[in-house]
Amino acid sequence: MSTKFDVIVIGGGPGGYVAAIRAAQLGLKTACIEKWLDKENKPRLGGTCLNVGCIPSKALLDSSHKYHDAKESYGVHGITVGDVAMDVNAMVDRKDKIVNQLTSGITGLFKANGVTSFEGFGKLLANKKVEFTAHDGSVQTLEAENVILATGSVPVNIPPAPRTGDIIVDNEGALEFRSVPKRLGVIGAGVIGLELGSVWARLGSEVVVLEAQESFLSLCDQDLSKEAAKIFKKQDLDIRTGARVTGSQVNGEEVEVTYLDAKGEEQKETFDKLIVAVGRKPFTDGCLAGDAGVDLDERGFVFVDEQCRTSVPGVFAIGDIVRGPMLAHKASEEGVMVADIIAGHKAQMNYDCIPSVIYTHPELAWVGKNEQELKAEGVKYKVGKFPFAASGRAMAANDTDGFVKIIADEETDRILGCHIIGGHAADLIAQAVIAMEFGSTAEDIALTVFAHPTVSEAVHEAALAVDGHAIHIANRKKR
């Protein structure tokens, strides 16, 4: 096997495998190194996202939502279903099948595009050389004109709740429950905690979410986080903010968690399972030789410029190991940008137009600035909101929670942000992303024809509402 390449990508997740495919498409001799082994110790591409992250969690979210709908909501449509039961083993097996199908698909894409795959661990050495250690322990040195670091991230561990077997688990362990825990604790009310907590809550778990921050979803627009808190409470998610976990004790098949509540008073809760979802950190352990020359910042992220160049010419870094949100789609687009740059093309990524999504039900999605940020920056803005409760299509679907909120510059009308909570928020946000990418104004969307009846009309109406012209709700009078 050749040891010299135009491009070597270390990491085969959504950043790395996309970068490798793109580089190969552009005529560059490309290799990709991935260390992932599945439950059967078989090599797998796709990284965290495909194997134990984005994809498997969505499989469980969709399965649990369909179960909950059948159990609680079909009667509204006149559908009688009798007793509804969930086969958790079948649900988890289906999730595994989807993961296998997609990861195998990447292997096929590598073959189709001529990417050389190395199964094992990659380490960047000096002078753009890469030490490759195969799973059998054999070592060889590879050389490249360019190296792309795409080693991803790992869950953050906290000393008060160390992972122990199958009682205290991280996101990976929470995807493998083979029965519904009666009492489920979740540490962290972020994306992972809320998504996994909602899966098991729909299936019957009593879920308590302990969040150390005083405010709920502080990174979201406050209108969004307030609406989400109200809806999640109705769904029996017990979210306790200002709750700082101080210890845990596993006793047989349960765990007792000690925490300080918002008043600083010590509290205890006992759970059958505990999910630790307090965030992720960049994975660079063992990936960089001491003389590799790549600089890290104080938080362990690889330092890069706006085009993902590191401090070493010809070495790039993308995805979760660099600044910016830890999102699969952000990593993928950085991979495309870097491959294009290496191939000699002009490429730039718009970091102001990266959407974020929480895949609960309803979903939360946003792009651009929120009201808190704009107020802090002293920007004058105007807001348009439209509730799904006024959408004919949402009513027909019995899915009327939430709203669309569009924020535009008061003087130029340029769209500055869009924030959606609703049943199709993850898909609807793409309309706002495209609009913002093209520098659209709220009027541009207001003048666009939307199909009727669709939930997309809520985006149209929110844009109309920015200037008080919404048709299907009463507009707020301007002061």
TrEMBL record:
GO MF annotations, alphabetized: dihydrolipoyl dehydrogenase (NADH) activity; flavin adenine dinucleotide binding
Cystine residue pairs: C49-C54
Catalytic activity: N(6)-[(R)-dihydrolipoyl]-L-lysyl-[protein] + NAD(+) = N(6)-[(R)-lipoyl]-L-lysyl-[protein] + NADH + H(+)
The record's free-text note on cofactor binding: Binds 1 FAD per subunit.
Localization annotation: Cytoplasm
One GO BP: 2-oxoglutarate metabolic process
Predominant cellular place of this UniProt entry's protein: cytoplasm
Domain Pyridine nucleotide-disulphide oxidoreductase dimerisation, first and last residues per copy: 354-463
Keyword DNA damage: no
Annotated EC: 1.8.1.4
Active site: H452 (proton acceptor)
Essential cofactor(s): FAD
Annotated residues for binding of NAD(+): G188, A189, G190, V191, I192, G193, L194, E195, E211, G279
Binding locations of FAD: K58, G122, T151, G152, S153, D320, M326, L327, A328, H329
Enzyme's top EC category: oxidoreductase
Keyword field: Cytoplasm, Disulfide bond, FAD, Flavoprotein, NAD, Nucleotide-binding, Oxidoreductase, Redox-active center
A single GO cellular-component term on record: cytoplasm
FAD/NAD(P)-binding domain sequence ranges: 5-335
InterPro entries with a match to the protein in the record: Class-I_Pyr_Nuc-Dis_Oxidored (IPR050151), FAD/NAD-bd_sf (IPR036188), FAD/NAD-binding_dom (IPR023753), FAD/NAD-linked_Rdtase_dimer_sf (IPR016156), Lipoamide_DH (IPR006258), Pyr_nuc-diS_OxRdtase (IPR001100), Pyr_nucl-diS_OxRdtase_dimer (IPR004099), Pyr_OxRdtase_I_AS (IPR012999)
Annotated Pfam families: Pyr_redox_2, Pyr_redox_dim
Family of this protein: Belongs to the class-I pyridine nucleotide-disulfide oxidoreductase family.
Other facts noted in the record for this chain: The active site is a redox-active disulfide bond.
Protein name from the UniProt record: Dihydrolipoyl dehydrogenase
Organism of provenance: Marinomonas spartinae
Gene designation per UniProt: lpd
